[in-house]
């Protein structure tokens, strides 16, 4: 079965570009904090990655604005690989071959923000309780090299002309939500501690490509007609209802406006300390989902895998004085051409779980080595990363660290950071990719994590003072 659509002028590349944008602009995301904090257990924020961790203080509180903030991204190419400078002048251009040489067959981009509005915790014997409120935003975008080559060279290039192509591993997942977490850890004995986080999630924004399969064939005759089929299922939920009053909606967006999109998640963790020199730990975080009910708009292929032939359209219908008159009309045309149906049914999106497995080796009271293996489960792909850490403690006041990570097929990730404790005030600044601070244009990965806590009290467990930071009996840095 072939449905035929007659145009006035042939502009095949534009319709392909529009289809790519339609796929990319519709999906979901999820976030976490820096890998470095996993090795700094005296920071309350280390419990975000493993709920079995509890700080060596009887009580702590993080205040709004100065609480935990994290931002990070991972990219398959750097800014310098994406752009080049003309030999004459300072203007930039995209070097297509340089971009393509930086890509693998399958690629991955991530952007994340984690902003805590407040956190507090207290100890009660062998029990530790935590409460936190955070705003989370995360994007996970997996894409194939061929789709970028199609965008840069067009479907009429030698690579694609007269040859069938198939995309099924490209998808963008985007999500923003509020997270209300109740944490609990229990020290079973001197060696084993277990913990969990129970989370209520309130969804703010979501675009999720549940399925995005696309096949295309460009006729190598003079018409350059495109025969394509798709099997697409895209879900969206957003308070931005249309583009006519976009600026007004953004200006009046409420940072803490709750919705009817409810979800739940949990984290699980364990810590095992066979002796004073070694400690092993493992956790799985972000096991959960959000049920989206408000402001729903879904797009689904009406006839999956049915071929549609497209020969172009009149560009003058969409361009006036060098600019697009109404991009929504173009999207409507794409929706019509590829048989996408709209519906407004509620749907459920799942978080992207992460597994952490770590180990610490206390060389002496001031020096420590650590190893962390983290695995991200992003849709149908698995993203492992490895981190080696060295930490040095200058008494009870200053802790500095350096680490090295392998992630997202990149081997140039050296992290640096510190934590300072002055009385009850504890401040930290962490970075897993310090090279990006020195050479931002050459960086493919970057993150930054900082925060401030107010900590009080010295724990006593099992009838003796706990060893904290200094690693010596009878000493601690509590107040």
Sum this structure up briefly.
This protein has helices at 12-24, 79-82, 96-102, 145-153, 246-251, 327-337, 435-438; strands at 2-5, 59-62, 69-74, 84-85, 92-93, 106-124, 127-144, 164-167, 171-187, 192-218, 226-237, 262-272, 278-292, 296-301, 307-310, 319-320, 323-324, 340-343, 347-350, 354-362, 367-378, 381-394, 398-407, 410-422, 425-431, 445-456, 460-461, 464-465.
Q: Given the structure, what is the number of helices? A: 7
Q: Quick one: overall form?
A: globular
Oligomerization state = single chain
Beta-strand residue fraction = over 45%
Structure class: mainly beta
Low-confidence stretches: 1-31, 322-328, 461-479
Mean pLDDT: 77
Number of strands: 28
Span between termini: 77 Å
Q: What Rg do the Cα atoms give?
A: 26 Å
Walk me through the structure.
The structure is a single chain. By secondary structure, the protein is mainly β. The protein has one domain. Helices cover 11% and strands 51% of the residues. The chain has seven helices and 28 strands. The strands form four sheets. The chain has a 22-stranded mixed beta sheet that branches. A two-stranded antiparallel sheet has the order 4-5. Strands 16-17 form a two-stranded antiparallel sheet. Strand 16 and strand 17 form a beta hairpin. It is globular. The termini are far apart. The N terminus and C terminus are likely disordered.
């Amino acid at each position: 079965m072939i449905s035929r659509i007659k145009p006035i002028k042939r502009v095949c590349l534009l319709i392909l570009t529009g289809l790519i944008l339609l796929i990319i602009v519709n999906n979901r995301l999820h976030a976490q904090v820096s890998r470095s904090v996993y090795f700094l257990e005296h920071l309350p924020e280390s419990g975000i990655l493993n709920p079995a961790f509890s700080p060596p203080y009887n009580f702590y509180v993080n205040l709004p604005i100065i609480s935990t903030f994290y931002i990070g991204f991972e990219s398959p190419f750097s800014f310098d690989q994406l752009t080049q400078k003309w030999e004459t002048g300072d203007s930039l251009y995209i070097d297509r071959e340089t971009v393509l040489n930086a890509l693998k067959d399958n690629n991955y981009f991530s952007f994340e923000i984690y902003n805590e509005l407040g956190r507090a915790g207290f100890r009660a014997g062998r029990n530790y309780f935590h409460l936190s409120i955070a705003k989370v935003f995360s994007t996970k975008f997996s894409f194939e090299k061929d789709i970028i080559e199609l965008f840069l060279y067009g479907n009429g290039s030698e690579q694609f002309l007269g040859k069938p192509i198939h995309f099924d591993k490209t998808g963008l997942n985007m999500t923003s939500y509020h997270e209300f977490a109740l944490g609990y850890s229990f020290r079973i004995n001197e060696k084993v501690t277990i913990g969990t986080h129970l989370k209520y999630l309130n969804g703010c924004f979501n675009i999720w490509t549940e399925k995005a399969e696309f096949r295309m064939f460009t006729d190598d005759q003079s018409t350059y007609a495109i025969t394509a089929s798709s099997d697409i299922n895209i879900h969206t939920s957003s308070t931005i209802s249309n583009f006519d009053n976009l600026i007004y909606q953004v200006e009046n967006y409420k940072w803490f406006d709750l919705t009817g999109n409810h979800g739940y998640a949990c984290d699980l963790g364990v810590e095992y300390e066979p002796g004073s020199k070694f400690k092993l730990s493992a956790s799985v975080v972000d096991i959960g989902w959000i049920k989206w009910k408000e402001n729903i708009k879904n797009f689904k292929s009406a006839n999956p895998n049915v071929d549609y032939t497209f020969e172009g359209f009149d560009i003058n219908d969409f361009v006036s004085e060098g600019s697009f008159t109404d991009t929504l009309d173009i999207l409507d045309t794409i929706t019509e051409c590829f048989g996408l149906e709209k519906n407004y049914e509620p749907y459920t999106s799942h978080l992207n779980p992460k597994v952490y497995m770590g180990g610490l080796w206390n060389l002496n009271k001031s020096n420590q080595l650590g190893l962390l293996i983290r695995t991200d489960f992003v849709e149908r792909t698995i993203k492992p990363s490895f981190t080696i850490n060295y930490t040095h403690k200058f008494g009870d006041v200053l802790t500095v660290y350096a680490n090295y990570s392998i992630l997202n097929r990149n081997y140039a990730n050296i992290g640096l950071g510190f934590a300072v404790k002055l009385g009850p005030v504890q401040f930290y600044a962490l970075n897993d990719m310090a090279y990006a601070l020195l050479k931002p244009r050459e960086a493919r990965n970057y993150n930054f994590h900082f925060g401030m806590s107010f900590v009080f009290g010295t724990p006593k467990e099992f009838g003796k003072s706990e060893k904290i930071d200094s690693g010596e009996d009878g000493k601690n840095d509590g107040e």
